[in-house]
Write a structure and sequence with these properties.
alpha/beta, Rossmann fold, Nucleotidyltransferase, domain 5, 2 domains, 6-stranded mixed sheet, P-loop_NTPase, Terminase_L_N, Phage terminase large subunit N-terminal domain-containing protein
Length: 420
């Protein structure tokens, strides 16, 4: 597994395409692939680089190779083939059945941040075509600018810590390593904002030191290996509707997430069945009461309604009689800050066999939670759902379900719940 990571303009795509072409020419009858999350983007970027490299090698279309744009296959005169693959995660195909059972000799994935860990694992498992015949081992190459997806943990961080497995390699590709790069390109990179300049010009993987982020990245990664305290069971429901993409039902054993349901929607009967299955009383079930969830709360006496914009919960100090209201804008902000304290302290864990796509979504959700206007003397608040959706194109459904678990923590021990 060869990962090329670093600055923009470091010739990662060019190198990956060159490697694929040389392999196809060296091993007649071999089969490789070029992949990105979206086939459309692949054809508009990586494929053009592929053809550019062919030209530099003196290879001509319809003489040395053919391109079937309908099938997405490039065929060389010696019988070798190069397939164009779409690795996007489609909810209708969570197991990537659409990839089929085609075997490959090797392959190159461009723009790795677009790819889920599950997609990578599945396509990697297909590296076995004619390997014994050619005397080869499975090889897959990847390219990416610095990002904070699974490749940060699996390649860059292990490389920095000198813990990278022997079958993996990390190659840093800097913009100044490319002798053919345009000076104008570099000048444009220098004009970027500080974070993107660090990523794309300097190739800095530790680019994101945003002090407004509530969750530490290492603490997010640790969620999936923490042995958190178990005990009382809870059920949290984030209902679809009003901008939410799906209904998320999250089952907890005290501070350990044991199950996540991802549903189109849910009825009171279906939720009751889940509660009975996990032996959770209604009093330990919190439902997002905004919008569609209001009806579910109304139909299920005993469950707790969670209203995001309600006032923060008022705590009574043990040493004082008067109530002291914490300086949060609303209940939602209060629970997010409380959750961040628990996550950053390593007190929360998530079940080991969580689907990789749920894991990716949860990690992205928590990375998006930032304090809003930290320099202003106003109650603590976070970015709005609309602002977050502008950043990632969706709502933070799984993260919201995790945040709502804190309702039971802040609302225990003689606390008062107040509404706006």
């Amino acid at each position: 597994e060869i990962f090329m990571g670093g600055a923009a303009g470091g010739s990662k795509s060019f190198t990956g395409c060159l490697w694929q072409i040389m392999r196809r020419l060296k091993y007649p009858g071999s089969r490789g692939f070029l992949a990105r999350a979206r086939l459309k983007n692949l054809k508009e970027s990586t494929l053009l680089t592929f053809f550019e490299v062919c030209g530099k090698l003196g290879l001509k279309l319809n003489r040395d190779y053919t391109y079937n744009f309908i099938m997405g296959v490039i065929r060389f005169r010696n019988g070798s083939e190069e397939y164009l693959k779409d690795l996007f995660f489609y909810p209708s195909d969570p197991e990537y059945v659409s990839l089929g059972s085609t075997e490959y000799t090797d392959g190159f994935i461009d723009e790795m941040p677009e790819i889920t860990e599950q997609a990578y694992q599945i396509i990697r498992s297909r590296m076995r075509y004619k390997l014994d015949e050619f005397g080869l081992i499975p090889k897959i190459a990847m390219g990416s600018n610095p990002c904070k997806t699974f490749i940060y943990k699996e390649f860059y961080k292990k490389w920095i810590e000198k813990k990278l497995e022997s079958y993996k390699a990390y190659i840093f590709a800097g913009v100044y390593d490319n002798p053919f790069i345009s000076d104008h390109y570099i000048e444009n990179l220098k004009k970027l904002d500080p974070i993107n300049k660090a990523r794309l010009l300097e190739g800095n993987w530790e680019y994101d030191d945003d002090p407004t982020r509530l969750f530490e990245y290492d603490a997010i990664v640790d969620l999936f290996t923490n042995n958190a305290e178990t005990g009382q069971k809870y059920c949290i429901v984030d209902v679809a509707g009003r901008g939410r993409d799906r209904t998320i039902v999250m089952i907890w054993s005290n501070w350990y997430v044991t199950k996540i349901y991802n549903l189109d929607n849910i009825s009171s009967q279906e939720l009751d069945e889940i509660l009975q299955k996990h032996k959770i009383p209604r009093s330990k079930c919190a439902i997002d009461e905004d919008g569609v969830g209001f009806g579910l709360v109304k139909d299920m006496p005993g469950v707790k309604g969670f209203i995001n914009n309600s006032k923060p919960i008022i705590k009574k100090k043990e040493t004082e009689r008067e109530s002291v209201q914490h300086n949060y804008k609303n209940l939602k902000a209060q629970c997010w800050f409380e959750l961040a304290n628990y996550v950053n302290s390593g007190l929360i864990g998530v079940y080991r066999n969580i689907p990789v796509d749920f894991k990716k979504l949860l990690m992205e959700d928590l990375e998006q939670i930032k304090q809003k206007n930290p320099d202003k003397d106003t109650p603590l608040s976070i970015l709005s759902k609309e602002e977050i959706k502008q950043n990632i194109g969706r709502s933070t459904d799984i993260g919201d379900a995790m945040m709502m678990r804190m309702f039971f923590e802040v609302n225990k021990g003689g606390l008062v719940f107040a509404f706006v």
